[in-house]
Fold this protein.
Amino acid sequence: MILEASNLGYRPDGRRVLHDVNLRLTQGKVHAVLGPNGAGKSTLLRLLSGELAANSGRLLFNGRALAQWPARRLAQLRAVLPQREQLGFGFSAEEVVQLGRYPALKQSAPQEQSIIDAAMVATATSHLRDRRYPELSGGERARVQLARVLAQIWNADAHCGRMLLLDEPTASLDLAHQHYCLQRVRQFAASGTAVLIILHDPNLVADYADEVTLLCDGEVLAQGTPADVLQSPTLERMYGVPIDVVGVAEHRWIRVAGERIASTDAFAATATNSGLAGL
Amino acid sequence: MPSASIRSTISLLTLCTAIGVVTLLALATGPLEISLAQIPALLHQSGASSPDSAFQVLALWQIRVPRIVLAIVVGAALAQSGAAMQGLMRNPLADPGLIGVASGAALAAAAAIVLGTNLMPLPAYVSAPVAAFGGGLAAAYLVIRLSSAYGRTSVTTMLLAGLAINAIAGAGIGFLAYLADDTALRSVTYWMFGSLGKAGWPELRIALPLLLIPLLLIPLAANPLNALQLGEAEAQHLGVDVERLKRRLLALIVIAVAVSVSLAGIVGFVGLIIPHLVRLWFGPDHRRVLPFSALAGSLLLLLADTASRSLFSPAELPIGILTALIGGPFFLFLLMRQLGRETLP
């Protein structure tokens, strides 16, 4: 068990944002968090990363309360990819990836370089190496940031319990890069890392996650393997629209039901109920 | 990267040579005629061989050398603290002048000059620098307190609070100038526009060690400052103690700026122009930006001071007017380029 969150609650100014969340991340497994906008996914990630302090509950990283970890040691084992990114100065893409190596116990210069190269290959960013980061496209920047967090814990001893927290790493990636990067994240997990990943596409969750937590209104709606959890009744309850889960060979394909979504009465009805009436 | 280190070495040699050459020029510049050829002999001469050369030795050691030392350390301190400030604020347009340190110091100095003779038993040349240092610290403390809540420091609030402090200090200085008699007014003008001609060895002896502290310690923060560019939360995730970094750097910046203003008055824009030029040349890596800003700042202030002494010789143009004349348009140019590119967050 690398990360163990029990009964986490977060109530800033008395507003209930997260309530009674239980979550376990294990080595080698990719754990996805899925949920509608505003469900509290990013807040959950910020709690799990220690950026925000929970109002209630317990949070253990490798058996020790997260808040008690020395910052540097924690950063050697755990990397966090936030959703927003901001960089005012014109660092090159390679320099941004190098920044990820800040907390690491430094290797020799050639070894450091090979880690940076490998992280950039894993995110298909090698060709962007010398480009100025602020001039890259949104998707390119997202991949450079992913390379940075991979590089951060690239050579950390897997026995010590590595962890990767990713907030929508695929949000601005094209189809091919989504799959390329998620495959690499899976490989990274397989090398002995616990991965938590916030995703918006249930199909990507079905393809790449070992476990999934459905988060709705700040509470866990369901938790388990994607095959168990990603069923149309649960998804319909979560998103408030009719959803088909279609079996194609051994594969399952999740989509919003109906020919053209806006023309379906059923959709319109549920959509009205869930506040999507403007669609 | 070997190419970067070659570039650093060449730049280091070039800057040091340039500082050396300008130092020689500065030694030979002034109302009292001293030629370049005489300088080595005069500097080595302890006793005087003639009344004439005794006067020259005195001019060199008591006036020009301290002035050159002052230009080198104040230029370095202002430029490097500017670079650190920009890194801290993650904004290439930030300047230590923005958080009110410089204007707070100038206000206190003006108060000491205009009101001081009645309030303090000290002569103005002692009370003004002391007051400037205190005023700079007080303004910085006020701005930092205003912008810190719940143990965090908000950069935006700090800039806005600095703006307010600048306005208040400006009004205060204006009022004092209104009250002042002619002599005091001249002194107040010197604090407002800066001059390297007021401080001699006694002031330098106290100020040099004080300026060396930030000059030597700020570059040590280069790596965490680089990490901070990713964002505060991101730097925290990389193991940087962001609040501690901010507190330490702010303290060092305030010392550098307050001591500089107490020695030389307000010399604007050095902290803005130099780091920007250094970044154009080396890229944004603070491991290079911080030390090279210090060197280039020394060179710029030395050049500007020599120019301010020779342009209207024997009269002296306040050096702050010269740096503002170059720096103001430069700042506008930067601003327009930033707006065109929209790379600012």
User: Anything to note?
Assistant: The two ends of chain A are 43 Å apart (CA to CA). Residues 231-279 of chain A form one domain. Chain A touches chain B through 31 residues (CB under 8 Å). Chain A has two domains: 3-230, 231-279.
